[in-house]
Design goal:
The complex is a heterodimer of chains A (154) and B (137). Chain A is an all-alpha fold and 154 residues long. Chain A is 65% helix and 0% strand. Chain A has seven helices and no strands. In chain A, helix 3 packs across helix 5. Chain B is mainly alpha-helical. Chain B has one domain. Chain B contains six helices and no strands. Chain B is globular. The termini of chain B are far apart. Classes of the chains: A mainly alpha (154), B mainly alpha (137). The interface between A and B is large, with 112 and 110 residues.
Chain lengths: 154, 137
C-alpha cells in the first residue's frame, strides 16, 4: 500500500502541471489539425487499403504517424527511468508487457468504431467545438463506452 | 505546401506534445486513458482536464486558422455505435492511436505493437466491408 503522501507526490496536481498539460493539449491539437486527423474522410481514406490499386488510397495519415513516432522514439530513447521532469514529479510509464485477449479484443472493437466513424479519441475530442451535434453525439457515446468499460472490466 | 509534408509536420507536432507532457509532468499522452481517468476519478485529474481543454480549444482554433476542411462520414445511430465501440474498446485495450500507436510504439512496447496492428487491421477491414456494402446497394 502506498501512503497518501507518496500517492499525492506521484499525482501532478498543482497549477503548474495543469499549465504544462494545457500547452501539451494545444500543441497536440495543432498537430492533429495540420495532419488532417480531424477530417474523418482522410482517416477513412487511409484505412481504405482496397483503394491502393485504384489510386483511391490516401496515405496522409502514415505521414502523421511517421512524424509523431519519430519524435516519440527519440523522446523515450533519451528518457531514463530515474529522469527528472520539469516539475520534479517521477515518470509514470505503463509497466505492462503481457499480450492478452483483452488487448486484442479491445483493439479490434476500437478499430471497428474507428473505421465506421473515422474518429479516434483525440481528433474526436479536438472536434467538439466545430463538429456540431454529430461530434457531440460521438464523444458522448465514447465517454459512456469508456465509463462502462471502467466499471465492468475494472 | 505538399499535403504529405503538411501531414508529416502535423505528426512532428503531435510528437512534440508527447515530449512536453512526458518531460514536463512525467505522463504519457494517451488520450483515451486521460479521458477515461478524467471522468472516473475527476478529483485527481486537474492536469487531465487541462490537457483536454487544450485539445478542445486548440482543435477549434487551429482548424480555423489553418482553414482545415472537415466533414463527417457517418451519422445518427452509426456515430453512437461507433462512439460506444471506440470508448469501450480503447479502455479495454488500455490505449488508442496516441497511447499505443504513438507513445507505446515510441517506447518500443510489443504490447502496443500488437494493439496498433489489431486496431489498424480492424479499421481497414471495417472500411472494406462498408465499401462493399455501399457498392452492393
Amino acid at each position: 500500500m502506498m501512503s497518501a503522501d507518496t500517492e499525492a507526490l506521484k499525482q501532478p496536481t498543482n497549477a503548474r502541471s495543469a499549465v504544462i498539460a494545457l500547452v501539451s493539449g494545444l500543441v497536440f491539437a495543432a498537430g492533429l489539425a495540420l495532419g488532417g486527423m480531424m477530417d474523418p474522410r482522410k482517416v477513412q481514406g487511409f484505412l481504405n487499403v482496397g483503394g491502393i490499386t485504384s489510386g483511391q488510397w490516401d496515405p496522409s495519415l502514415a505521414f502523421v504517424m511517421g512524424g509523431a513516432l519519430l519524435v516519440s522514439l527519440v523522446t523515450f530513447a533519451m528518457m531514463k527511468t530515474n529522469d527528472v521532469t520539469w516539475l520534479n514529479v517521477p515518470l509514470s510509464l505503463p509497466s505492462r508487457n503481457d499480450i492478452d485477449v483483452r488487448l486484442i479484443a479491445g483493439s479490434v472493437l476500437f478499430g471497428i468504431g474507428w473505421g465506421i466513424s473515422g474518429f479516434c479519441p483525440g481528433p474526436a475530442i479536438a472536434s467538439v467545438v466545430q463538429g456540431g451535434v454529430s461530434v457531440l453525439m460521438f464523444v458522448g457515446a465514447m465517454l459512456v463506452g469508456m465509463f462502462i468499460a471502467k466499471k465492468t472490466l475494472g | 505546401m505538399h499535403p504529405y509534408l503538411q501531414s508529416f509536420i502535423g505528426g512532428l507536432l503531435v510528437g512534440t506534445a508527447v515530449w512536453i507532457l512526458l518531460k514536463g509532468i512525467g505522463r504519457v499522452a494517451g488520450i483515451s486513458g486521460i479521458a477515461a481517468e478524467a471522468i472516473s476519478s475527476p478529483r485527481r485529474s486537474l492536469w487531465r482536464f487541462a490537457f483536454l481543454l487544450g485539445l478542445i480549444v486548440g482543435g477549434a482554433f487551429f482548424v480555423k486558422v489553418f482553414s482545415i476542411p472537415t466533414a463527417n462520414v457517418a451519422s445518427g445511430a452509426w456515430l453512437v455505435v461507433a462512439g460506444l465501440l471506440v470508448g469501450f474498446g480503447t479502455v479495454m485495450a488500455g490505449g488508442c492511436t496516441s497511447g499505443h500507436g504513438v507513445c507505446g510504439l515510441g517506447r518500443r512496447s510489443m504490447r502496443s505493437l500488437v494493439a496498433t496492428l489489431s486496431f489498424m487491421a480492424a479499421g481497414m477491414a471495417t472500411v472494406a466491408i462498408l465499401n462493399a456494402l455501399k457498392a452492393g446497394t
